Each structure stands twice: as structure tokens, then as C-alpha cells.
Amino acid sequence: MSQILDEDQRIIEFDVRTDEMLVNMGPQHPSTHGVLRLVLRTDGEIVSEMEPHIGYLHRCAEKIGENLTARQWIPYTDRMDYLAAMNMNLGWSLAVEKLLRYQVSEKARHLRVLIVELNRIASHLVGMGAYGLDLGTFSPFLYAFREREKILDLFEEVCGARLTYSYITVGGMTADLPPGWLQRCEAFLDQFEPIIQEYHALLTTNAIFVKRTAKIGVLSPEMAIDYGCTGPVLRGSGVDIDLRRDGESIYTAMHDGYAFEVAVMKDGHYPRDHKYPAVPRDAILGDCWHRFFVRMLEVVQSMDLVRQAMDRYSQCKGALGEPLKLAEKLPAGDTYLETECPKGQMGFYLVTDGTSIPWRVRARSSSFSNLAVSPELCRGCLIADVPAIVGSLDVVMGEIDR
Amino acid sequence: MRGTDFISELEAAVDGALVGRDLDAVDPWLEIAADKLLETCRWLKDSCEIRFDGLQCITAIDWFEPDPKKAAKVEWEPHTEVVYHLWSTKARASLVLKVRLPRWQGNEQGKIPELSSVVSVWRGADWHEREVFDLSGVQFNGHPDLRRILCPEDWDGYPLRKDYEMPLEYHGMRGR
Amino acid sequence: MAEFLIETIGLPAWLAWTCVAGLSAVLILNVIAGGALIFIWAERKIAARIQDRLGPTRTGGRFGWLQSLADGIKLLAKEDLMPEGADALLFRLAPYVSFCASFCAFIALPFAFDTVGQRLNVGVFFVVAILGLEVFGVILAGYASASKWSLFGAMREAAQVVSYEVPLGMCVVVPVMLAGSMDLVTIGEKQAGWAMNWFIFHDPFTFIIFWVYCTCALASVNRAPFDLAEAESELVAGFHTEYSGLRWSFFFMAEYGSMFLVSALAAILFLGGWNGPVPVSKLLGLSDGVAVTDPFALRIVGCMNLFLKATAGVLLMMWIRWTLPRLRIDQVMTTCLKYCTPIAAAMFLGVMLWQLFLPGGLVAGSFRAAAGVREGWLEQSYRKQSAEEESLSVKTLSRHVFEVSR
Amino acid sequence: MNQASFGIPVSLFASVTIDWHGFFFLLFAAIACISALMVVLSDNVVRMALHLVLSLGATAGLFFLAGAEFLGAMQLMIYVGGTLVLLVFGVMLTAQTQLVSLRTPAGDRVIASILAAALLAVLVQAAFSIESWQKPGQGMVSAPTATPLGMALVGVRVDQHAEEGLLEPKGGYLLPFEIVSVHLLVVLIGAAYLARAKRRRVPRPVDLVASVDSVEPTFSGNSDTTVSGGSE
Fold it and tell me: Are the C-beta atoms of residues A200 and A297 closer than 8 Å to each other?
């Protein structure tokens, strides 16, 4: 503090100088998603400096990965982004299959798209509900969870678990769909369609919500790419990247034949395949509102994908195919594959030395890089904006700390 | 996926950088000399015609076989390898760079190897390098705030090294 | 009541008056405290219904109506702990200051014609002054619990309530201007008769002023989009983070008390207080229009009317709370200084001009009671007083003005 | 009075009469004086502010007792609601640890008490020299006090013109009232101008991330968590 005093007196003698307070938000804070601690240096209500402290949920999954075979590590990928466990399983399975140059059956491919997109809807619902909680309204959280419960029921029928499924594994799926599941999934999608408009009315176009999120935490496309932000955070800033379309060949092969538009604002407007609410006047591209809106569009996009996957899955003649053996021998070498998860691009790096146990396993988490940009966004905002900004990044601590 | 012209371009731009390569692996990679790393990365991001503007991930692999029996059969000798995964958002292309470092600086136990930080090139590298420093013990010179990110501040040892021993006690909590 | 005690039981005068005073005090306290209990249960039920769930169903009967009792017992049983850095005296005093401020405003609040604790001639002014006191308890609580977060909460709340008193004051002056007196009973009485008489339909300006009043009332009671003080997403629970058990319940009672107060005030000032939309009693010939001589039963009906309107106001507040997100502190301030105050001032001017140019109102009808006050006062001042009329002592003048106005 | 026997020994109460008006008068007067004294004597700044609020609140009570409801409500709103909230704000902001207790040296106390005693003597003598204050008050005047005030403002001096039937309303107090309010407005704008934060020409060198570490040790050692951080 001393060097501030001997500054040029003329400028600051009339200024009302309040001393800086170091305030601790978390790690048990109700608004931060999980155990994330934010140290705010505040000057009155203005936050001059924010530093996130992570590592409270670190379970060293990577060290354990060096003692388990590829299929035995699947449950650990569940616990990383526990809101979208299916996407995590898919990411790890595809990475291993890329190393083995193994091709799953046609039926398994469509089933994977179906299950993964359904899990994306569930994850975005939690994101939307928790964001409403950050801004002070409690009801959307309960509406979101009511719908999510229905998806979890569907998953429970498929693989017996509601949160950490370990359903998609290396070489295929652990089980096929139970009879009548497709009709129940169809029923869910039909009744879910109008409810999306409810969420738009309740949050997206709500005047107070727009006031709390528009022009807050504006992330420029260059900074987003520089910090390695991915997923809705990147698309919220207008960068047109979606790995399902421009990812690695093995990942895009899974989605070829599916018609979908990437939810991003291209030359001034979002895709018009459905009736979406208009963008409010004072929302700038890259602010919290746009990140939230991109997630809401992706829910509708995922619903289309699920419908297409259901048709293709039911038309497939061949057998589903068995997953690989538990202790499958892995060829020496290393491979890296990123898949499009709800929070962003989740990368798995696998280094093997020829035995069935990998030498080194590395999970590149999307929320890890998304959160890295938060000090940049929170500089100079108000205290009440910090949960709004961190909430809009939709971070999950399990994925960050691994 | 990298044409030979790209490699010749790279060698022309930064001489002595390319030390090794393997183009027919599942993910072709190039090996870069440790001291030329920062220069290469700056060239890749700014002046190369495929702009690698995104740093996906930095990983450190500890090539060291702890028990002597297997160590005899292994063909590589112990070293630490830092792997950079880059990708270009415009050209949708990805690239893997590897850098070979000794396990300990000057081979005496306890002094961790040095490497120049690429935070000045990609801001995203900040937290990735802090994690590599925290878990695998690689000192990144030029990093603005190199502290442990996942383990507590005063944790000793680098967990992801093959010869890492779990401490018996930490602030009164029993380790084993 | 006092006469009954003196004649029949033969108590000395002063004791009779003491009993009456004690009884009315207890009556008001229990009515409001009872109301608060019901509102706690109602809040849980409404929140549940809005969020597509059931709310309390098992405590006491099918609709969980004993939930408030269960809450009360839980709060009583909880330990009243105090943070070690806290300032003992202030920490204990704060809830009582807040509770008393919120409840002693009911002294001047009439429930039906002339059934009021103490009929103050400055009723409205007194209630607004007391509303300002409640923030004092909050500041003490925030400061005394010696934690950064509570201090933040207290500062925010104090800034908000103090700044919202300005537009609230302006909105409250409009009905006073229409009724010509600050006495709540007179204001209520002016809106007798058909619903058209209510001040909210008096002219377009008062209609807008009613909604500005609702916003300011919401803000000064710290509810719904303006509940900055206990913004759990940022400040955990604002100024009452450190309170638990009975002390915390005092803050809770104060909040519900002032919620009921503010909506009752809105009912009286704008929605005709104890007068129902249709003057049933006059149509049925039960009362001859002069409220003073109404039979006692009509007072009970009056109370019912006011309670219904006030409860409707409270339910509206609850409904808003469970649908709208929260505003930021600077947005709350800008709505106050940039929106509420200028609009209130403009409408105030509008109502004044309206009164001046259209004293009879658009529909020139006899029921324009407010205008009567002015003519009565002017004629009376110019007409030479004949000797036999009593001298214009303070008491006679006010009664005189009062009769002329009806 | 017919002695209806309700089993209450009515005669017991007949002798004792409590004059509530007098009782409350004494109560409020006592509170006002004692808390005024406490303001001077207590050394904790926040306690001082609290006692000041109590004494001003008690004077408001006295006004209500004297039937001047308008004045009482005014006192409550202006003093207790307005000024003191700002005072407590100021006290709360400044009363960090080192400023909370203000010790007055013994010498000053002696001089202060002498001065106070002299002032008190003068006031008491002046008070009792007015004969209408000798005998105790004859009870509350519960007349509506706001209406005549309002009309006095507009010009109809009800209490003076009672006799000759207020022929034509004189100027009243409207003009001075408006002048005072404009004056207050000017004062407000001046204060706001002085207190506004200057636009900085030189951005204040907020010592960025590095200094966060300097403060860090107080938090990171999770065994000795000092309370300086958030309460949780």
C-alpha cells in the first residue's frame, strides 16, 4: 500500500480512497459450482483482481490410470465431468479405438450419438438451472431438474446408473437398449419441445436476466482462442468451431449423415432452424447472455440429433457387437483425441509401451481452460457479477481438478 | 497430415530446431530442441502460413522404469518428455511437438529440469504449465506466477513421477 | 369499551383505560404476528406451487398448515450463538430494534373506519417515518456480527432502503393530496362507494403512481428482485448470516410484518382500504353513507376487505419473488434514482394539475369528495361569521372541515 | 357507580390512581437524559451512536405525548431516520479496530463538566421563570395538529384569526419554505460534487497478482485459518 501514497498528490487528494479488502468467496460458497475458491481483491463493490484457487477435488485420476487397463479406467472418466459422464466415456473409448485403429459396428455408432446427445441435453439443463440460481431466481432450477430426472430415468433403464454410467466402453457398449426404450425416449422429446419455450420466457428474454448478463464478462474471440476456451464459451464469442463437424476424422465419421447446424452467431444471426427468441438490443457477442443462449440452442440441436439417431438406430440390421476384452493389449505409441463435450472440448492423451496397461494417461479438461480466462473477465466488475461470470462459464470442478 | 514442404519451411525458419520426427505414427509428431522451443512456437503461431493459434494441452511424461529387472529390457534411457498439442482454428489442423528433457537438472536428484515458458505465445499455457510444474516437476522460466495449482502450496515431491513416494504425514494427517 | 368497564364493572377510570390500551396493543401484535405465521406457511406453499412441487404436506393435517409452528419450535430450540468478534450489546439489540420498528408502524394503520390503534392526524407521515427506522436494526446487525460479508449486506441494504424512501415519500403524498388530509382514516373514507372512487382509478397519473409505489414498497421491504441484503449467491445471507434461533426469527417476523404493513398501506392509499368495490351496505340501506354512524358489524366487513386486499398484496410479493432473478446493487440504485424518483415527481405534478383543472374529475359527479374540501374552506373563509356560530377554535374548525368534505 | 361484584375487590384500586401520561412523560424524559449522558461518557464510538439514537427517539416520544404528532413524526423521520443513519454509516465505516475507542483525558472531563453544569443552571433558571410551566400540565390536547399547520403554510393563520373570521389569507410561510428547500438543494449538489471520485489521469498501480501472494499466507495454511477472511 505504501507506494500508492507517495503518488502525485494532486490527482488523488480529493478522491475518496477506500482501502482494498481481500475477500474470500468459497470454497464452501453456495454459488460457486462445487469446491472452487475465488480470492477477490475488492475496492468497495468493484472487484479489482480475482484469483481462482482450484485443486480441492483433485483425486489424481491420471496417476491411477497408469496402473489400470484401458477399459478399467472408464469409471474414472465418469467422475471427471459427472454431469455428462457419457461424453467422457465416449471421449476415452474413441481415443483408445483410434490407437487400436478399431472400428465399431454401424448400430453401435448410431446408439453412441443417441446416448451422448441425450446426455448433452441433461448437462445443459443443469447449466441453465444453476445459472438461474446464481442470479437469484430459484424456480428455473427446479424446472430444469424435473426434466433432467426424466432423462436420468431413461439412462437408468439402459445402464442401471443415473449419474456415472460407464456405459460406453472401448469397442462398443456394455448393453443394448431395452425393448420399448425408443418409444419412451420419443415421448420424452415430444413433451420436452414446448417446455424449452418456457425456459426462454423465464430466463433468456427476462428483462432482469438480460440486465444482469448483457455486456457482462465480454470475451473477445482472440482471447478465447488464446486461452484455449472451447465449447459454448468459444461459440458464445462467435468462433464457429464444433468438433462434431470439424474435429478429427474418427470423431466426425461418427456424425456423418447427421444434419445439424452449429449453434453460433454467424454474420449477425443464429441458425434459424427453429423459432428462437431474438437477441436483446444491448447484448454484445461474447458476453454472459450469448454463452447462455448458445447452450439453450444446443439443447434444441441435440434434440434433433437424438431424433435422427433414433431413426437410424432402428433401421440398422447388424448386431451391436461386443466391446473389446478387459485386458486388451495396446500397441506401443501415443495418441490424442478431442471430443465435443457439453462444457467444451475434452481431450484424452494416451501413451502406451506395448503392454495392456498404458504408460501415461492425460485428460485435457475443457472447464480447466474456460476457468483460466475468468480472472481476465472479472477484472473491474462488481461483486455481484462474479457469480454471473463464473456461472456463465459453466465449470464443473470434478473435470478441472481430475 | 503434414506435407514435407511444411517441415522444410520450419527448418528454414528456425535452424537446428527439428531434432527428430515420426510421420507415420497414429499422431505424427516432431521433436524440437529444448532451447529452440520458444522461437519455434512463436514462428508457428505468428509467421507460419498455417497459424497454430490454439494450444490444446501440455503434458509431461516421465520415461523411467523404477524396478531394475524391467529397466534392463527397456530400449530408451530415463528422461522426461514434454508434449505440446497445438491446433489451428482456421485450417482445422493439429500438430504435436515433443521436447526431451533430462529427469533431473544436471542429473543430481531434486533439481527439476528447466524449459522456457510459452505463456508469452499462448496465454492458455499459463495454467497448463503450472499443472505440469505441480505434478511432474518441470521448471518453466519466464512464467509469470509458477505456483502449484492442484496440490497444496507447501506439498513436496511431484506425484506423477514414476519414482514418487506418497508422504507418510501431511499437517498431522496420516498418509498411509 | 372503556365506558363499559367503568359503568358495569365499576373499575376506576384509569384502570379501565389501561386495560383498553393493553388489549388493543395485544390485539394488534397478535393479529400481525398471526398474519406473519400464516404468511410463512403461505410462502412455502406458493413457492412450492410455482416450482411444480407440493410444499409442506405432513406437518399437521393434509396441507401442512402447522409448518409455521414447527418452524417456530425449531427456532426456539436452536442455540443463539454469537460470533466471538461480535459487539455483544449491539448484536443482541439489533433484532429487537428491527422488530419493534416494523411492528410499531401498525399503531397508525386503520383496519376499518375508526378501528385504529391511535388515530393520528399525521398517520401516513408517521408510518413512512417508522419504515425508515427498520434499516437501523439492519445496520446494527451488519456491523455487530464482525464479518466482512455481513458488513457488505448491511451497507447494501441501508443504501437501498434510505434511497428508496425518497420515491416512496413522493408516491405517498399523492393520495394525501387527493384526500386533503394525512389521516389514514380520512383517506380511506374518501374512497367509499363504487370502485370508481378508488384513488387508483382517480386519474391516469395516480394509476402509474400506484405501480411506482409498489416498486418502491418492494425495494424498501427488501423483497423480490431487490433483495440484495440476503443475496445468497454473493453474500451468503447478508446481514443475518451470524444470527440463528430466536434472534433470526425476529428478523424474519420483522420482514413479514413490514411486508403486510406496506401492502395494507397500498390498499388504504390506492385501493379503497376497507371499502369494497360495490357499496353493498349503502345499497341494502344498512348504512346511510355517513361512516361515523355505521353499525359495528360493517366495521368487521371493513376489516375483512382490508385484510383481503393486504393479503393479495403480500401474495403478489411472494409470486414475484419466486419468478424474477435478482438485480445488482447499482441497477437497484439506478432504478431508484433514474426511474422511480423522476416518474413519481412527474406523476405528482400531473395529479396536482389534474386536481386544479378538473376538480370534478372527468365524470362530473357528486362523489368527487376531495374537491368539496377546497370549496368548503374558501366559502367559509370569505363568508362573514355570524356571531352565534362557535368561535373557530382548532377543534371546531377541523370537525367543520371534515363535515363539509363528505 | 354500581358496585357490581365481580369478585374483584374494586375498592382496592379506587385509592391508587396511576397517571399514565405523567408516567410516560417521566420515562421518556429519563431515557432522553440518561442516554444523552451516556453518549458523552461511553468510549466505544458505535455505542455512542446508539445512545444518540435512543435519546433522539425519546424526545420524539415526548413530542407525541405533548400531542404534537406532526412534530414527533418529523423528529423521527429527520433525526432518527435520516441523520443518524448517515451518522452510523460514517461511524461504521471508520470504526475499524484502532479508532473504535476514544479515551478523553481526565483534565478535559473536569472542564467539560464545569461548562455543562453552568449551562444546565442557566437553562433550569430560564425554564422555571415562565409561570405556565410551574403547575403540571393539564392533560393531552388531542386536536388534529397537522391541518392548521398546513393552512398556516398557505396563509390562513387559524390560531390568530380565530376571532375576526380570517378575512383574507396573508402570505403565509410558503415563500420562506421554498427558499430553504432551494438552499438545501444547492448544499446537496455541492456535497455530491465534492465527494465524487475523480477520473484518474494516472491509473492507480494496483499491485496485481504478485502482491496477492504477499497476503496469501494468512489463508493458505489451512490449519491456522485466521478469521480475517470470510466468516465461513
Answer: no
